[in-house]
Every structure is written in C-alpha cells, then in structure tokens.
Write a structure and sequence with these properties.
Alpha-Beta Plaits, four-stranded antiparallel beta sheet, 35% helix, elongated, transcription, Tscrpt_reg_AsnC-like, DNA-binding, WH-like_DNA-bd_sf, Dimeric_a/b-barrel
C-alpha cells in the first residue's frame, strides 16, 4: 500500500484513472461497487491530498512532430548549491526538455529531450544546451525504439 490512509477503493480509483483519466465517476462507481457520490468525494480528497497531481493526455510523440527522443547526461562543473540551482532554473525553460532529473552516480542530471530530428537536436545542442550555466560536459543517447513506456504505477 502506498500510504496507510488509502484503502482498496482509493487504490481502485487511482488505478482506473491512471488507465483513463476521462473515466466517468458512474463507471468507476460501477466497477468498484460504490455510489457515484462516494467516488466523487474520494477523488476530490485524493486531489486535495496530492495523490492526483493533474489530468493529462498522452500524445504520440511522432504524430506530435517529436520523432527523435534523446537522453542527455549532464555533468556540472562546480558542485555547489548555486551552480545546481542556476542550471535547473535555465533548463526548465527549454521546451524541448521533457524531463530533468538530478542523479546520483557518474553524472549530475539526466534530460529527456523530444525533438523533430537530428537537425533540430544540433540547433538545440549548439544554441541552447551549451549555453546552460555551469555545464562541464554532456553526452547524449538517441532512442532507436521503445519496447515499454508506462505512465501508470502499479498500486495495491
């Protein structure tokens, strides 16, 4: 269980909404054998407590014109709180960067980048990534194919 305050019904709601966030409360209620009012109340509580951060649509990256996915490892030149924050403050402004995670291990940050093609990556690399503050080194890897891409956590 992800939290002692969540019961089987809460987990069921979260599992259903992760599959399809557009599922109607009446359909969730039917599946979980609860009233629509009970489901509505629980969903509102799950939102207020931060279990549900937001609702979204997942696009096909190729149809969205982002056919090339890159994972870029970033090394920061000086490990100080100021340099880490300076890097983070600027990298989040780049629309091509879909994720930025601070990492343990050999490198400091891992970026997931979605771009149209290698030409667009070249422009991004030379005109934006190299200009980020405190960057010492970068290494990129390009996705050839994806076997599994889940967005839902297995709960309960």
């Amino acid at each position: 269980m992800i939290n002692n305050t969540l019961d089987k019904t809460d987990l069921g709601i979260l599992n259903i909404l992760q599959r399809d966030s557009r599922t109607f409360y009446k359909d969730i209620a039917l599946e979980l054998h609860k009233s629509v009012t009970a489901i509505h109340t629980r969903v509102r509580r799950l939102e207020e407590e931060g279990y549900i951060k937001h609702y979204t649509v997942i696009l096909d990256h190729k149809k969205a014109g982002r056919g090339l996915i890159a994972y870029t490892q970033v090394w920061i030149e000086k490990h100080s709180q100021e340099s880490m924050k300076a890097f983070q403050a600027e990298v989040v402004k780049l629309r091509e960067v879909m994720e930025c995670s601070q990492m343990t291990g050999a490198f400091d940050f891992l970026l997931r980048i979605a771009i149209r093609d290698m030409d667009e990556y070249n422009v991004l690399y030379n005109e934006k990534l190299l200009k980020l503050p405190c960057v010492d080194n970068m290494q990129s890897f390009f996705v050839m194919s994806t076997t599994k891409n889940e967005t839902a956590y297995v709960l309960g």
